[in-house]
């Protein structure tokens, strides 16, 4: 590896502080500038001056940047970086709405730059293992994918509701794990905590190829849950992304010779296996993928085009909740 890439991070809050840490940990990258108009609450700058804005970050002479500011500021900050020729990873969701996401994706494509979105669950070892096993044919045809993502309200202040803040994780990982796009969604939301945005959502959806999907997402549960269940013709894979465990429930292969029973086309319980997998920190894996893409090596990042597809689905979910109708994409 030649000279280290010069990296900058803007936004030093709940996620930004971790981006600074992992960029400092990986080979071939030097964090040379950090910025946040609100200062450095977690004291991650170290010897670096805390710059005030994205223009100061650009002036530091950076090759790559991570944008971890509130969602409503993603577009102006990232557009400034694109205009300056800086490869950029924007925290998810890509932008506050589809129109802003389209402008961002176009800006980075037109400039020939790496534009990535921080859909961190894609780098969770459990989700990567499930994706690999599905690609290897372990489940055969995929029938259904269900996710549950619930827990207490996060201390970080969100300027979006649970759909754009949390459900976007599930939308992205569902499309990636199944290698399929959403065709329709129907949703129910609730506003239980006195904030202007929804804090619970239930989604049912249909993906291309006839795969059923459903998502239970909220930040009103004292029980923290991060589960993805993929059911197919040969069994079911369950990923727990909080513990990075993967379990396989195999459809039984014990056949009966009794004719009337043999005609029943159902499933039986087979072996259950919990796989021991390497548990690398997802954020570090994401940072390494971003670095490799900037270096022109393999691009394993979540592209802005994919991030845009996710925000489109999120907005369709919001529309369905308001109209109480199924929304086709």
TrEMBL record:
One Pfam family this sequence matches: GFO_IDH_MocA
InterPro entries: Gfo/Idh/MocA-like_OxRdtase_N, Gfo/Idh/MocA_Oxidoreductases, GFO_IDH_MocA-like_dom, NAD(P)-bd_dom_sf
Highest taxon of source: Bacteria
Gene Ontology molecular function terms on file: nucleotide binding
Record key words, sorted: NAD
Domain GFO/IDH/MocA-like oxidoreductase: 127-237
Gfo/Idh/MocA-like oxidoreductase N-terminal domain mapped to chain residues: 5-119
Protein name: Putative dehydrogenase
Native organism: Flavimobilis soli
């Amino acid at each position: 590896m030649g000279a280290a890439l010069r990296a900058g991070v803007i936004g030093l809050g709940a996620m930004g502080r971790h981006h600074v840490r992992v960029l400092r940990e990986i080979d071939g990258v030097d964090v040379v500038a950090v910025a946040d108009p609100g200062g450095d609450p977690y004291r991650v700058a170290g010897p670096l001056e805390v710059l005030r804005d994205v223009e100061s970050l650009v002036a530091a002479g950076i090759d790559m940047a991570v944008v971890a500011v509130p969602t409503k500021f993603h577009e102006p900050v990232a557009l400034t970086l694109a205009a300056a020729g800086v490869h950029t990873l924007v925290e998810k969701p890509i932008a506050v709405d589809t129109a802003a996401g389209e402008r961002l994706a176009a800006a980075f494509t037109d400039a020939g730059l790496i534009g990535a979105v921080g859909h961190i669950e894609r780098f969770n070892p459990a989700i990567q293992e499930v994706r690999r096993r599905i690609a290897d044919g372990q489940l055969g045809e995929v029938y259904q994918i269900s996710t549950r993502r619930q827990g207490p309200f996060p201390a970080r202040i969100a300027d979006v509701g649970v759909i754009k803040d949390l459900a976007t994780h599930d939308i992205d990982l569902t499309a990636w794990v199944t290698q399929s796009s959403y065709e329709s969604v129907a949703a129910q939301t609730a506003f239980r905590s006195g904030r202007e945005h929804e804090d619970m959502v239930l989604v049912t959806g249909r993906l291309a190829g006839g795969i059923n999907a459903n998502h239970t997402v909220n930040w009103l549960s004292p029980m923290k849950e991060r589960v993805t269940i993929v059911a197919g013709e040969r069994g079911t894979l369950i990923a727990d992304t909080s513990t990075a465990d993967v379990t396989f429930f195999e459809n039984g292969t014990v056949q009966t010779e009794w004719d009337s029973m043999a005609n029943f086309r159902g499933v039986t319980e087979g072996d259950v296996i919990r796989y021991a997998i390497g548990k690398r920190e997802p954020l570090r894996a994401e940072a390494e993928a971003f670095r490799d893409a900037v270096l022109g090596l393999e691009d394993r990042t979540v592209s802005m085009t994919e991030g845009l597809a996710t925000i489109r689905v999120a907005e369709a979910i919001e529309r369905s909740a308001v109209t109480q109708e199924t929304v086709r994409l």
